[in-house]
Amino acid sequence: MDEGLDVRRALVAGNWKMNGTRVSVGALMEGILRQAGDLRDIEIAVFPPFVYLGMVADLVRHTPVVLGGQDLSDHDSGAYTGEIGAGMLRDVGCRYVIVGHSERRQYHGESDELVARKFARALEHGLVPILCVGETLAEREAGETEAVAGRQLGAVLATSTAAAFQQAVIAYEPVWAIGTGRNATPEQAQAVHVFIRGQVGLRDPVAARAVRILYGGSVKGGNAAALLAQPDIDGGLVGGASLDAAEFLTICRAAATRIGAAQG
Ligand code: 13P
After folding, report:
1. How far is CA 57 from CA 50, 52, 73, 96, in A?
2. Active site residues
3. Which atom of ligand 1 is nearest to the CA of 17?
4. Separation of 15 CA from ligand 1 center, angstroms?
5. Total-model pTM
6. Which residue from 223, 208, 159, 168 is spatially nearest to 2, judged by alpha carbons?
7. Ligand 1 midpoint to CA 141 (Å)
8. pLDDT tens digits for range 31-83
9. Which 8-state DSSP code applies to residue 185?
10. Domain layout of the chain by residue ranges
11. Average pLDDT over residues 74-101
12. Pocket test for ligand 1, best of 136, 218, 227 (most atoms within 8 A of CB)
């Protein structure tokens, strides 16, 4: 058993991606907040589209649910049409920001270096970055899973210190598992999480024990408990299932049960 488990508070993060209306966002938050008070041992975070951040910030005030952005600019402010800065995310009440999601890397051409700059910018402004790494199916089949995760993580370690991971989160999201209904097995995910923690540990063993590593990719109510039972899986980054309050709360409860199990 990883001795760091008891110091790492489980985090269940709902990445809503480009989904929602004011009506659906209101209903989803009402469903989540109705039960979130019973789940204070874990941390629950939601990541609405930018335009709904202010609305959700008002709804989560005085509740245990925290807020995050789905992306940020690597610039502070200025003539960058369409971009959102870290300071703005802080200003509207965000604690977290997702950095380097595979959909940003794939559809918006984000390089490892750009992701590393965004990660540093988030930290500079007191946001907790959630760095996403993960391989495509072709890369997994070519045996390159560790090489890809190592390269993506390495770019960040080259820009920020390994100690920075005491204030950051990593999410292992295999691209082939995202939105496909085909999750990594708990053993597959655990193996990559151990590798990732090891990479941080080569430079900073304290940060390696502290950093939470989330699994993302088709996490559902039905598979969450098995995934979260793995000693190095410290939570989930949930896409589709986070749009359904009941399903999302089932995942949160699985994370809370994991804590109970770890404490014996
Ligand atoms: P799904 O849970 O829909 O597979 O999405 C995972 C994800 O990309 C979360 O960031």
Report:
1. 11, 8, 20, 13
2. 101, 173
3. 10
4. 7
5. 0.96
6. 208
7. 21
8. 999 999 999 999 999 999 999 999 999 999 999 999 999 999 999 999 999 99
9. P
10. 5-254
11. 98
12. 218
User: Which tokens sit at 59?
Assistant: 């709804």
Determine which residue's CA is closest to atom 2 belonging to ligand 1: 239
Identify the pLDDT of residue 6.
55
Pocket of ligand 1 (CB under 6 A): 15, 101, 173, 178-179, 216-219, 237-241
Identify the pLDDT of residue 1. 43
Long-range pairs of 100-103 with CB within 8 A, sequence gap ≥ 24: 100/131, 100/132, 100/133, 100/152, 101/15, 101/70, 101/71, 101/132, 101/173, 102/132, 102/134, 102/173, 102/175, 102/178, 103/17, 103/178
Query: And the tokens for 19?
Result: 């989904």
Cα 181 to ligand 1 centre (Å) = 10
* CATH for the stretch 5-254: 3.20.20.70
Going by alpha carbons, the residue nearest to atom 1 of ligand 1 is: 239
The 3-state DSSP class for residue 27 equals helix
Of 250, 261, 264, the C-alpha closest to 39 is 250
Per the document, the length of the chain is 264
